Amino acid sequence: MILHNSPLSRQNEGMTYAPFRIFFNLLHIFHYGLLRKHFEFLRNYMGNMDMNEIDHFMPIMMRMEEDADTSPLVTSGSSHFLWIKHSNLYLVAMTKKNANAALVYSFLYKIVQVFKEYFKELEEESIRDNFVIVYELMDEVMDFGFPQTTDSKILQEYITQQGHKLDVGAPRPPATVTNAVSWRSEGIKYRKNEVFMDVIESVNLLVSATGSVLRSEIMGSIKLKVVLSGMPELRLGLNDKVLFEITGREKSKTVELEDVQFHQCVRLSRFENDRTISFIPPDGESELMSYRLNTTVKPLIWIESVIEKFSHSRVEIKVKAKSQFKSRSTANNVAIMVPVPSDADSPKFKTSTGSCKYLPEKSVVQWNIKSFPGGKEYMMRAHFGLPSVESDELEGKRPITVNFEIPYFTVSGIQVRYLKIIEKSGYQALPWVRYITQSGDYQLRTN
């Protein structure tokens, strides 16, 4: 099992980005050498690289685009560029050392997340309009090549949208910066103390035209909304397979979690010792942990489709949808996207439940079922006209995609066995737990 904690400053404290610089570039149709239509935000953290080294980056990228060969790490001489692209912006870290590449990329994605928390959208305009705050954030999130505070909630305590207001005298850093619990402020008070926990699982599924499951995966996360006073400690117990084996309860229903990632608040040493998830939670909303399960999942909603063409003038599509979960559960807001020929017109629909609409811009029929109980089966028929002259161009057969959400249900069987709230003042707090299963990349191929 791989464990990750989010605070980058805890990991690999001897690792440096030498130096770390963020470089934003807009690529248009103009050749880089003819018209430099880019703007840069640079920060040289260690001072051991020439600031002009970044000029080698864009020519390398343009050559890579011409060769259709992209790599997340490129080299020019002794300089290494580790980059990611977000919208039309490039974020680039430069180093001459053998740096921890995984940590560099983790930091770059964290920078994107922080900027999006501040500016809603990370794009050229938001960067131009907030360049002062961009530099302030870059000064705070890293120091001399070492990641520092990357939690946007903490950063927003002293870097506001209006920027810094200079006070007379020595500025005092917020307590959260120097506090051992940097993700939570002191002195938080609420009249009613509650914790809301959502266990959310997304099902990624790919089914072949013959009905065999080609890919099956469950991506899970546990999200919190914390409304608690003071500095409470929470302890969470799951039906974890390793824990139950240690305690001699192998016959109980358990789940074997893979690729577990925790929020920085979780005490990893405690988890590794006795599998207890112990933490002081951030205030408000946060993701406590995420996990993955590589397991064969029976398709929760099964789709069968038949497409018939009649003398190249019309086409009829028959679709049968069946829910393959227990009758006590119900899928909500089910949307079944059935591909149709791109030249189809004059749609007519007939359904046993729900409603249909034709989306010509996507060349699909969207069948919406607001409530789909377990163990039910529904039918839909769609009739389209086709041009009298059939196109010689053969269209690729696109899969049917399904979107849905099933409350009070987890496909993996994960369960919250207990959620204890301990605070020195001894107040009473209410924990609420909700389970949700939803579709991820859910596709069924057709004949």
UniProtKB/TrEMBL annotation:
**Domain of life, per the record?**
Eukaryota
What are the protein's UniProt keywords?
Cytoplasmic vesicle, Golgi apparatus, Membrane, Phosphoprotein, Protein transport, Transport
- Domain (MHD): residue spans on this chain: 192-445
Q: Which Pfam families match?
A: Adap_comp_sub, Clat_adaptor_s
Which Gene3D superfamilies does this chain map to? 3.30.450.60, Mu homology domain, subdomain B
UniProt-listed GO biological process terms: intracellular protein transport; vesicle-mediated transport
Q: What are the annotated GO cellular component locations?
A: clathrin adaptor complex; clathrin-coated vesicle membrane; trans-Golgi network
Question: Does the record's keyword annotation contain Transport?
Answer: yes
Give its localization.
Answer: Cytoplasmic vesicle, Clathrin-coated vesicle membrane; Golgi apparatus
Q: Taking the first listed entry, what is the main subcellular location of this protein, grouped into a coarse class?
A: membrane
Identify its membrane topology class.
Answer: Peripheral membrane protein
Q: In the UniProt record, does the keyword Signal occur?
A: no
Q: Which PROSITE patterns match?
A: CLAT_ADAPTOR_M_1, MHD
Family recorded in the similarity comment: Belongs to the adaptor complexes medium subunit family.
Function of the molecule: Subunit of clathrin-associated adaptor protein complex 1 that plays a role in protein sorting in the trans-Golgi network (TGN) and endosomes. The AP complexes mediate the recruitment of clathrin to membranes and the recognition of sorting signals within the cytosolic tails of transmembrane cargo molecules.
The name this protein goes by in its record: Adaptor related protein complex 1 subunit mu 3
Organism of derivation: Salmo trutta
